[in-house]
């Protein structure tokens, strides 16, 4: 019973983290160009406990690290460093494909091809009554392990990679759905990770 309660709390916190990304998106929107991944070094990467994450200013929080640390509260055997290394590996593979001169459409297309075609990430069936209830459908470590997730889990993966690449992409919460949006202040593209990154009309 206690474990089920913790899962419910964790789901609520994960949702809050996603909303937090949307709130401080102006930090990303005004980034003039892609930075090298080697220069991505927020204080959040050095946090090892949830308490250390919570005292950081928004711009110093690393989304992936915060989620991994939170997940370890649920599963003490979980290897945070190993999962973060996988996120870094994916970001590095994307970094060499994306140029600062690329259009927003091309950037989104490159990420979508990498995630949904080459790495075969896919959405679970929204008709599943447990679609937004089961922790493994939303938790980033589970999404990475299974290559499947719901709209929250896949959006978190997209946001974690975009954050490392300094891309102006943030989370959007719509009625009964979550997706991501590219917005550099000039061009806005809605990206639906549950539909292989298609431009959603929501």
UniProtKB/TrEMBL annotation:
It holds the Pfam family Transglut_core2. InterPro entries: SirB1_N. Transmembrane segments: none annotated. Residues 83-198 form the Protein SirB1 N-terminal domain. This is Protein SirB1 N-terminal domain-containing protein. It comes from marine sediment metagenome.
């Amino acid at each position: 019973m206690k474990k089920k309660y913790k899962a419910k709390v964790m789901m609520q916190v994960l949702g809050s983290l996603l909303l937090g990304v949307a709130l401080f998106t102006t930090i990303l929107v005004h980034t003039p160009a892609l930075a090298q991944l080697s220069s991505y070094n927020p204080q959040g990467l050095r946090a090892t406990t949830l308490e250390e994450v919570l005292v950081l200013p928004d711009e110093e929080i690393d989304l992936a690290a915060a989620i991994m640390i939170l997940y370890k509260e649920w599963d003490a055997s979980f290897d945070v460093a190993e999962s973060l290394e996988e996120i870094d590996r994916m970001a590095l593979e994307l970094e060499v494909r994306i140029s600062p001169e690329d259009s927003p459409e091309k950037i989104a297309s490159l990420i979508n091809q990498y995630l949904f075609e080459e790495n075969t990430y896919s959405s679970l069936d929204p008709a599943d009554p447990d679609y937004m209830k089961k922790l493994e459908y939303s938790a980033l470590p589970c999404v990475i392990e299974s290559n499947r997730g719901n709209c929250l889990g896949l959006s978190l993966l997209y946001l974690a990679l975009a954050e490392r690449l300094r891309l102006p992409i943030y989370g959007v919460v719509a009625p009964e759905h979550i997706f991501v949006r590219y917005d550099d202040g000039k061009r806005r593209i809605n990206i639906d990770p549950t539909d292989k990154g298609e431009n959603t009309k929501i």
